[in-house]
Amino acid sequence: MAHWPTVRRTERADTIVRRQRGRAALAALAMAALVTATATACGTALRDLGPLPPRFSGPPLPADTVVSEMTSVLAAEGVTVTRQPSDVLGRCTERLSGRHAPETVDSALQAAFSRARSEYGWQAGPDLGSGTLTLTKGNWTVLANFPAAEPAQGIQALVVMSLTCLDAGGSSATPTIAPTRGT
């Protein structure tokens, strides 16, 4: 009877392996059922609904028009800005920057954004939290942040306004890249 403990260990190992394979088979069956149910339930949500509606209404605005409007409303509030060239290939962005008295920079930016809404038809943009102002018009979004900290004595606060378009067709200086053919 020297073989009895070896036989018991073998039977026990076989039982353990059978249980593990049974659990794995049950888990695979459950996953197959879950995938089938998910595919059936989500099948209608994944159908093609056609092209997406345009992200903006009306014709695309040229970059020069947008820069002119924003420069004008800022100048009316006493903020003088300069246009910085957009040198990002294939991107439709502009940037206006300047300096203003730190005591009135926040109120000047708020007044300029209000003026843009009333005089040029800009709309309030997405809410990005306190300290950030946004406007949208056509294919453009304008973003300005209030200066974070008081500058040192005698230094004016930095004003930066970022203008981004949704469609490269709105930029007056958008580079065109000719398609190339592989040889």
Strand order of the largest sheet: 1-2-6-5-4-3
Record field, number of beta strands? 6
Instruction: Specify the overall morphology.
Output: elongated
Tally of DSSP helical segments: 3
In angstroms, what separates the terminal alpha carbons? 80 Å
Instruction: Give the uncertain stretches in residue-range form.
Output: 169-183
Largest sheet: 6 strands, antiparallel
Spell the H/E element sequence.
HHEEHEEEE
Portion of residues in beta strands equals: 15-25%
Mean pLDDT: 78
Structural class: alpha+beta
The helicity comes to: 25-40%
**Rg (CA only):** 32 Å
In short:
This protein has helices at 4-42, 63-76, 105-120, and strands at residues 80-84, 93-100, 123-124, 132-137, 140-145, 157-165.
Which secondary structure elements does this structure contain, and how are they paired or packed?
Elements: H1 4-42, H2 63-76, E1 80-84, E2 93-100, H3 105-120, E3 123-124, E4 132-137, E5 140-145, E6 157-165
Antiparallel strand pairs: 1-2, 2-6, 3-4, 4-5, 5-6
Helix pairs in contact: 2-3
Overview of this protein structure:
The chain has 3 helices and 6 strands, in the order ααββαββββ. The chain is of the alpha+beta class and about 180 residues long. The termini are far apart.
